[in-house]
Amino acid sequence: MMLVRTTIDTPLGPFTVFSGDAGVVRTIFGEEDPVEDPDVLEDRRRAAPIRREVDAYFRGTLRAFETSADLSGLGEGFARRVLETVKTIPYGQMWTYGDVAAAAGVA
After folding, report:
1. Would you list the DSSP string of 44-105?
2. What SS3 class is residue 20?
3. Nearest to 19, CA basis, from 77, 65, 85, 60
4. Where are the domains of the chain?
5. Which CATH superfamily is 1-70 part of?
6. How far apart are CA 86 and CA 88, in angstroms?
7. Is the pLDDT assigned to residue 2 strictly greater than 70?
8. Given this model, what pLDDT does residue 17 score?
């Protein structure tokens, strides 16, 4: 699978997003050692929608992301259930690990 990588400057530091045709597959906050991978390209044009959304989020003008998360690589186990649950937390709300575990059915 070909991935696009883009790094966005945010108030919290560099934020690197890896995305494919079905959505975002990985994110990293902070500095990352660049790894040469023939299946990852730096393409600002293809990553422009993600960049706009992240910038708007940090400006406080975005409440929900339109770009989807591609969780298909996680199978159907614990990690996927937790991330599917985290995706439903409304903007501005804070949940504890216990809240997330209970909602995901893993508590």
Report:
1. TTTTHHHHHHHHHHHHT--SS--SPB--GGGTTSHHHHHHHHHTTSPTT----HHHHHHHHT
2. strand
3. 65
4. 1-70, 74-107
5. Methylated DNA-protein cysteine methyltransferase domain (3.30.160.70)
6. 5
7. yes
8. 92
The radius of gyration computed from the CA coordinates of the chain, to the nearest angstrom, equals 15
- Residues 91 and 44: beta-carbon distance below 8 Å: no
Cβ 54 vs Cβ 15: under 8 Å: yes
In percent, the amount of the chain with pLDDT more than 70 equals 92
Task: Encode pLDDT of 54-101 as tens digits.
Answer: 999 999 999 999 999 999 888 888 889 999 999 999 988 999 999 999
Q: Which amino acid is at 7?
A: T
Q: What's the pTM value of the predicted model, to 2 decimals?
A: 0.78
